Amino acid sequence: MLHPVALCLIRAQRASVHKEKNKKEESVVINLLQKKLSPNEISLLSKGLSFAPSCRFNFFQFQIDLERFIRKLHIQTFFHGREFNDPLIVSPKSSWVPPTSFDPTINVFKKTVLKEVK
Questions:
Q1: Which phi and psi (to 5°) does residue 62 adopt?
Q2: What own/partner pairs with CB < 8 Å and gap ≥ 24 does 27-34 have?
């Protein structure tokens, strides 16, 4: 179900307001529903209907995260269905990676994700 703000029919008008020597642009959001809008919702709606948020994409960090995820997938498929009788509850961190040829579909997944992101 859509958020009530998305269902809200709004009309935004830009009006120039002069305060002292600085010019400020003030937005007017008209709420046509019974729901009271929060200040954050009004602020977002006042940016206009063509507003699109942007963020910076760190490809290097993405590759690191993808490698960690792929390693976890390899480990889970490698040990799937095996029982362990190891009494150690706490063990040091490991950097061991199972053989990558164990499940080739994971490698295909990794290549596809990298191809789609680039």
A1: -60, -45
A2: 32/8, 33/4, 33/7, 33/8, 33/9
pLDDT digits (tens, 9 = 90+) for 65-87: 999 999 999 888 888 888 777 66
pTM: 0.51
For helices 59-78 and 104-117, the axis angle rounded to 10 degrees is: 170
Element (H, E) at 111: helix 104-117
Between the alpha carbon of residue 40 and those of residues 4, 47, 96, 113, 114, the distances in Å are 14, 11, 47, 35, 36
Q: Which residues contact 26 (CB under 8 A, 6 or more apart)?
A: 14, 15, 16, 17
